[in-house]
Amino acid sequence: MKTVAVIGTQWGDEGKGKIVDLLAQDADVVVRFQGGNNAAHTLVVDGATFILRLVPAGALYPSKVCVIGPGMVVDPVALLQEIDELQRKANFRANGRLKLSYDAHMVMPYHRAIDRAREARLGKQAIGTTGFGIGPAYEDKVARCGLRFSELADFPSFERKLRRNLLEKNRYLKLVLKAKPVAVGGLIEQMREVRRRLLPHLCDTAGYLADARERGQRVLFEGAHGTMLDIDYGTYPFVTSSTCVSSAVFTGGGLPCGALDAVLGIAKAYTTRVGAGPFPTEIKTRLADQLRAKGAEYGSATHRPRRVGWFDAVLTRRAMRLNGASILALTKLDVLTGIDPVKICVAYTVKGARKTDVPYSMMRLDQVQPVYEELPGWQEALSDKRELSQLPRNARRYLERLCELSGAKLVMVGVGASREQIIVLENPFLS
Ligand code: GDP
Ligand code: IMO
Ligand code: MG
Q: What predicted TM-score, i.e. pTM, was given to this entire model?
């Protein structure tokens, strides 16, 4: 028995999907525990690309159980579409393998409408959300008027609550946000279909995981987004609406406290961010376009161009400590080939003073100046490398320095998007 969590240490899109897909080989159960379809995790296997939004990234192995925990907010229609697409493209059989928590909350069309209307009203101050209704769905959960999957069992009662919510949300949309209300027509029938298809998947997922662990099974927790998008520890208000750090495994995943054996932090060899908010190491020159093109840095969920910057060791060190992570998987090292020199942010200056930690408020990140260390680059392509010793000396030096500054032990290095394009130094399930 072993439990491992994979957590993003930056602003998301670190390559969690690829690492979870790889580790899922050695796990029995893969669990998503927070967020919703604002996540987009890319898997490239045998030349085919899969983008998973709600279904855990164990889906491509026929025998792994995929769990959607109570900490998630799930758009049921998007989930059905994802299941159908996975079935078409990867012969995914959801029956018996996909377990959906009774207690997960549903994202409804009015959540999306509110999310989008608020962003539109904010104009230049907008957060840059994905527009998938994640924030408003979590608001309703905390306000205790959200709809949980368990409520589908008693459809008349579910329908009453849905109509009540719709009435209230439509008033808010019309009168406060000056936006179009959401039509009820079709929604009730759609939810009937959701009920028919999803009821067989509903499960007490915490109980299921406890049983699985008692049977000696290995459980892999798949974080979504990233530490800097965490509702408490991120760059608030430019964050997502859930807890993204490893402690969410206990609340949102149903694992008892202390039962996590290892936390694997994931970082890109540089940094990206989608949406607004402070980003100290952001590159504003043409080099950003070059990196964006080489690293295909366009949001997998919304196709927006990602902002690109240098590796920020100050933030990564903070993230590793917050998550209780000592081991690190570094992805996309191959993208830095040909960039010379490469820079690492080793400290900030704040009002002239040098700091190696973050200012007391993460929002103050827009007032810091990064202090860079420059290292010589390398020219060799890395995509066919499978051993650390095969990497150019300067690439190894970059990795060593980056890990030293981040307080991390390097266990994996990504050298391409495909499942096999990785150097594995240590597998947390096997070590
Ligand atoms: P996630 O949200 O953390 O799962 O990351 P995304 O899938 O949104 O974004 C990561 C992108 O980088 C995807 O397009 C991956 O296919 C790709 N990727 C992952 N690891 C590597 C790597 O080591 N090298 C390269 N070139 N691409 C990678
Ligand atoms: P994965 O799991 C990158 C960002 C959005 C926006 C902010 C709030 O693929 O790494 P939201 O719709 O969540 O209310 O938007 O959070 N964001 C992500 N950025 N990767 C993600 O997920 C993200 N999930 C949310 O761009 O800035
Ligand atoms: Mg992503």
A: 0.97
